[in-house]
Records
---
Amino acid sequence: MTRTWFLPWILAAVAVLAWPAEDMLAARRHQERSEPPPPMISGDTRMLVIAPHPDDEVLAAGGLMQQVHEAGGMVRVIYLTDGDGFPEGVKLEDRRHAITYVDYRGYGRRRQNEARTALTALGLEKTDALFLGFPDSGLCKLIRAYWSDHRSAYRSPYTRLTRPPVSERTAPETAYRGEDLTQEIAAILATFRPTLVLVPRKEDQHPDHSAAWYFLVDALGDVHRVSPDFSTDVLTYIVHYNDWPFADGTAALPAPPGLRGGASGWIRVALTPAQVRAKKSALRKYRTQVRAMAWFLDGFVRSNEIFSRPTPASTNVVLPLKHGVCW
């Protein structure tokens, strides 16, 4: 078989090597000057972090959450699911192959407790955690096939539940439907009135993460219709994108190759050594996840975190969620 397919890569590499060093340095300085600044943080900041699963909040924003807290601001974390639909993790915990819905539910409770403990490692309170209890690995299905009460609620194949536990509902009739999750998020937005919201990018390759973006957009539309004066800054983060960031061993977290930084460009938030240590300590509180994939958690313990801003107009309209894209 001929190998001419990789000739363009060789030519590109030669071109880079031939580029004068001073030109490369000038280009790097231009890039640094053109990068958008990090979000303004103060004692008035009210940051809401939307995490599809327990640990996503620390992976993406463990440092930024500390910065808001240290500035005197407020942080709340919404966990859309309890992360209970992880068969490999449940098997590691219970050490048996025949696992039941009881095991999955117990695993979810463990992850909730880990999340509360992780927040305290960042200097926050356990009460800063809000668990909505929607189905792990089922959020995209709520968009595609279980949106309204025109059909039965979605049933988790893991926990066998069709609605969140009573303690995790803001409305008694809440069930596993897309509209219900939107209303839960909208109620929190209207009550907490965040000045800054963090949410996964729609390009995140985990279906629950991609779906989280659409639910936030729909909830923002609901709140805006009732309170037209409500506005908030939205930053997006990413956790799952090909082999990023594990193919890069640098101290700084790079942007995912091939993914543009949204409307803003990639926003880099530098962390102090103390904030990096606290972030690593918080991730270690997720013992169930450390047992299953410590390498994954460690890949996000870097000297910075990265975010991006979506197009402003896209957070003020209701997207056609039934036809939304989920990976």
---
Amino acid sequence: MTTFVIIVLCLYFVPAIIALVRNHHNKIPIIALNILLGWSVLGWVAALIWSLMAGHPKTVVVRTSDLP
């Protein structure tokens, strides 16, 4: 019984775990959505999709003073 509960909890928090591992810029709202609405299938799927979405694009800074 204990193993079953642990497996179910791990599956329930998959979106939060993905957001934490990927260091998603919206990890706190994703975790909140997962905790508050994860019990509904729609809330869990929304949190999962959100956690898998790409974050901010990488910014490249070019200093013009270094150019010839």
---
Amino acid sequence: MTFKKKRIVYHCPCGLCQQYPRGAVAREHLAINRVLVGLDEKNRRRFVGLLALQWGRGGVTRLSEITGLSRTTIRCGRSEVQRHGRPSEDDRVRVVGAGRPAIEKNTRKS
């Protein structure tokens, strides 16, 4: 039986969320981070990229602070959303060869 690691909702460190934790802005930032918890890395990147497109100038930097994602990741998601044509590489989450390299099982030879 495999268990998925439960992700923790990221809490925005921006000044408005710290000063007014129950304010409308803090609720919006919390809602964005709650959505991100349920997405895989590709959809998380694309969702935040779409928000960056909608927010316009300065959106990437603001979303980086709100979500904890790097600006490079958000820019990549923004370009994926803007790209026309077929989905990239059979809807893979990562490109071929990405991720942790496989390790061989160490066994004792008697």
---
Amino acid sequence: MITDRKINVLVVDDSTVARMHLVHLLESDPQINVIGTVNDGEAALLFLKETRPDVVLMDIHMPGLDGFETTRRIMETQPLPIVICSATTNAREIAITFRALEAGAVACVAKPVGRDHADHEATAAELLQAVKLMSEVRVVRRWARAPQRPQSAQPFPPPALPVVEVPPASGEVVIIGIGTSTGGPPVLQTILAGLPKNFPVPILIVQHIATGFLSGLAEWLNQTTGFQVHIGAYGVVPLPGHVYLAPDGFHLGLGAGGRILLTKEEPENGLRPAVSYLFRSLAGVCGPAAVGVLLTGMGKDGAAELKLMRDRGAITIAQDSESSVVHGMPGEAIALGGATHVLPADRIAGALLNLVTRRNGYKGNPS
């Protein structure tokens, strides 16, 4: 829990104006203390040799050592919570932000807009909330490794992937729904990269993320997993081996005709898109033919509805506490008895492979 002790923050941004704006916003919160500002990654590394903040708030696009490379070096030497703060709207540039998450950053937020903008208060509040919550996150050292590459179509399942036993049941799996929030993008990447490119089941995903980052998330997942990742569109029939992300500001579900449903209905748990909406639609339309997966994230979105899916005969998976950045959502589901399996992030792909193999009789012939 957050205590009376102030949260010490280092701000890293190459723009003097942006640094001043961020410092002003951060120090408007009595729980936050900015202990330093630097203008590039090299300066950040030098600062951290002498002083350890609770959180690093860092831009992604900087001359010299950018946010990704700086994150990688910090997490390999002296890991601490890093929040990426970016103003870019270009999908390919935003994809670099998700490489920083892959390297160990714990969250990404949009750079707050100015006071004359209608979204000023909302973006400022999101920044402050992220810094305060991420100051409590447990981080671990990331060892240097070769970058992951998209998989080509391969026999199914691939060798050496861990699997878990699933109970036999009649009927094929026709859809997989995944819900996640804080810490979700790297886990999604781990799961999708662990599945074969010709995976025979479509996947629908609700990822809570700052407005404007979704296209970059889709681009990054396309680049690093080999899956075709789309932003969901109304009326589309989900295809095997394709991934569909809920668009900004819309609930995503599956309609009775097996087509993607998008709606502007009221937020649930204060969120739109909401995992709750997706899971409830899958429980109603698909019953035991659906699989629900609830990953890292704060709050309780999707927890009761994962239990509903399980009650309707679906296999349900919740991420375990040890591998979650924030165990709020999956933890709530586990407490409600909503999880058939509780698994670390790196075993979820294996469980899905095993389940679809047994239910669908899939042998993995290349498509």
